[in-house]
Design a protein that fits this description.
Blueprint lengths: L3 H30 L26 H4 L22 E7 L5 E6 L2 E7 L5 E7 L4 E10 L9 E7 L4 E8 L5 E2 L1 E5 L3 E7 L5 E6 L5 E6 L5 E7 L6 E11 L2 E2 L6 E6 L3 E2 L19 H9 L7 H10 L8 H9 L4
Parallel strand pairs: 1-7, 9-16
Antiparallel strand pairs: 1-4, 2-3, 2-5, 5-6, 8-10, 9-17, 10-13, 11-12, 11-14, 14-15, 14-16
Length: about 325
């Protein structure tokens, strides 16, 4: 006869197994009972649960849902989700430059321009409604272009093609202050072989012309003897055939009695911790080492100018480095 010491554990095991089996059976029943199987018939002038305008154009009229909230105002972006939305941006930047597309202020796509500076990038499957799409580029030195923005109203199943984009040239100067009568070098990158117009602010804006080389690089040495003392700004635009860009970012410099050279040409505004005008794995490794640690005096000073200035290195600082990443 089986002893109680053996029988009770076996009984308990069989009971647990039985409960588990019953639970699985009833769990399966309860799950299956809420499942809904829908069979849609395309072309019956009614909109089934799984039908869309793209899957069944014949019933599209019945599947259109009027916007909620009445007719007041224009409504905001992202009113309803749609898998068939698409925006394509095509144009010119700089040879082999990095292109970034932002939707409502957030980067959603990136690509690299060809050696001829042309690019095309698409964004798909986002909410219908009103959005602002922006595009920026960076030249070979990491200098960022002016931002181009396009407010769009996006509808389901509609592809919007934005063509003829011409990103304005970048521009830098070799001196933050130049002694009157000396030359100041004005340079940057644009579309290859493009005609460059440089505007220099004065009581009346003065214009100069040059041509970008096959890599899109241009340089103009301007004689400051024609400029008055004080602050000035330079800007540039490019033209290729019948295409003309807008003027790009303005860069300030001063005409005075001494010359002060720029030492941070092309340096990212933030993220550069080791002073090489790049944001890459070296900077990242420095940040990781000091991540959530008490900062030394030197690192605290770097964090204040190169990161977000809160006296510590955390995820916010790493996100800043990711944004300004040059590689």
């Amino acid at each position: 006869m089986m002893s109680n010491k053996i029988f009770f554990p076996l009984f308990l095991l069989l009971l647990l197994l039985s409960i588990g089996f019953i639970y699985r059976v009833y769990a399966d029943i309860s799950i299956s009972s809420v499942s809904v199987i829908v069979i849609d018939t395309c072309g019956n002038s009614s909109c089934g649960v799984s039908e869309t305008c793209s899957s069944c154009p014949a019933d599209c009229g019945a599947c259109v849902v009027p916007p909620s909230g009445g007719g007041g105002g224009g409504g905001g972006g992202g009113s309803s989700p749609a898998d068939n939305t698409k925006v394509t941006l095509t144009g010119r930047a700089y040879p082999l430059s990095q292109i970034e597309v932002l939707k409502d202020g957030k980067i959603v796509a990136s690509t690299i321009a060809g050696s001829d500076s042309r690019f095309s990038v698409s964004i798909e499957g986002f909410n219908v409604g009103n959005h602002i799409f922006s595009i920026i580029s960076k030249d070979k030195d990491g200098v960022q272009s002016e931002v181009l923005s396009y407010p769009l109203t996006v509808q389901d199943g509609v592809t919007i093609n934005i063509t003829g984009i011409f990103i304005a040239p970048t521009l830098s100067v070799d001196k933050s202050e130049v002694r009157k009568g000396e030359n100041i070098s004005i340079f940057g990158q644009a579309s290859p072989q493009s005609s460059i117009v440089i505007g220099i602010s004065s009581p009346q804006e003065i214009f100069a012309n040059t041509v970008a080389d096959k890599n899109g690089v241009y340089l103009y040495n301007y004689d400051t003897a024609f400029l008055g003392y004080g602050g000035h700004e330079a800007r540039s635009k490019a033209a290729v055939n019948n295409e003309i860009s807008d003027f790009g970012k303005t860069v300030a410099f001063k005409v005075g009695d001494k010359t002060v050279y720029n030492t941070n040409l092309g340096c990212p505004a933030r993220g550069n911790l080791n002073g090489d005008c790049r944001v890459n794995l070296i900077d990242f490794s420095i940040a990781v080492y000091w991540y959530r640690k008490p900062l030394s005096t030197q690192i605290k000073s770097l964090e204040a100018t190169a990161l977000n200035g809160d006296g510590q290195i955390n995820l916010i600082d790493l996100s800043i480095m990711a944004y300004y990443w040059t590689g």
